[in-house]
Amino acid sequence: MKLLIRLLVIACLAFVAGALLGVKWNPEADFWGERRTQESHRVAALRESFPETPLVLFCGGSSCAFSVDPGLVTAASGRAAYNLGTSAWAGPKYYVDRAFQLARAGDIVVLGIEPNFLTEPELLKPSSLGMALAWRGLDPAAAAGGRSFGGSLTVKEQVGLLRPGARYLVTWAGKLLAGGPRYHYGPADAREGGRLETARGHPTGRGDAAVHPSRLTPEARALLEQIATLAKERQVRVAYALPWYFTAQESAAANREARGRLLEEIAAILPVLDDPARGVQTDPAWFSDTHYHLTAAGSQERSRQLGESLGRWLDP
């Protein structure tokens, strides 16, 4: 009996330690959680500045955070805008729920969900980062879509997501011992309107040569249909905007064809903002540290095009 009690105590202590590492002492959650706190105040301030005008809220993964300049979108479309982009690994259900919590009737939500989350199995499940951010907001159900999607997680599922893996522990300890930055990004990367911009260069300077899947998974289709229903209920207009992706010249044509098929499937569920390049870009000057993160020049070009496409959709 004493051995059983000891084992239970050890298990409880191990869970508490893991949860602290995954939530409270998680530098990635620190960064994105602080953005979440700031965006609540800044969206509220934007409403005060434009009290009679619906807002445009961009939501998506880090491809959204590093590519959409709300000021340029406003200049091109005439609509006040804010960038709610977060880490893609927080999960689409987490950040879409967040966007709908901030949206009001009449607002426009532009989805920038990275295509791999829509075309590859298993990626729409709740994630450890989403769980960490949800716990920081004292709303664990948010990791599964919470109030917007009626999502919830069992205690067992939460325990599993809060338990840090070996790779996380090694990386966390290594960065702590090295004494350098504990996360890639920081306050210096923040720009006006929620946009992010990093000085980190692309690791290779070469675009992705692979040709990517072009069909919605059943789970992705169900998610987009839920979003369409939610938008109708909340009286919020929703459109999808395909993120720009750094692609090798030799695979650009094939990927544009594949993305075209994907956009046709999405357009049967939600409006899609026009993008002649279908998200496929080959200019290395437009990309920073990943295939999805844009430089200042890339962000300017994409934001201008987004604003024009948004204007054409809203004022046909």
Strand order across the biggest sheet?
Answer: 2-1-3-4
Q: How would you classify the helix and strand content by structural class? A: alpha/beta
- Count of DSSP helices? 13
Based on DSSP secondary structure assignment, what is the total number of beta strands?
6
Oligomer: single chain
Give the overall shape.
globular
How much beta, percentage-wise? 5-15%
Low-confidence stretches: none
Helix content: 40-55%
Major sheet description: 4 strands, parallel
Question: How confident overall, as mean pLDDT?
Answer: 88
Question: Could you please describe the fold and organization of this structure?
Answer:
- The chain has 316 residues and is α/β, with parallel strands linked by helices.
- The protein is 51% helix and 7% strand.
- The chain has 13 helices and 6 strands.
- It has helices at 2-24, 27-49, 62-65, 70-77, 92-102, 115-119, 128-136, 146-149, 155-162, 166-178, 218-234, 252-267, 296-314, and strands at residues 56-60, 81-83, 108-112, 237-240, 245-246, 280-281.
- The strands form 2 sheets. A 4-stranded parallel sheet has the order 2-1-3-4, sandwiched between helices. A two-stranded parallel ribbon has the order 5-6.
- Helix 12 links the parallel strand 5 (245-246) and strand 6 (280-281).
- Helix 1 crosses helix 7, helix 2 (27-49) crosses helix 7 (128-136) and helix 7 crosses helix 9 (155-162).
- The longest helix has 23 residues, at 2-24.
- The protein is globular.
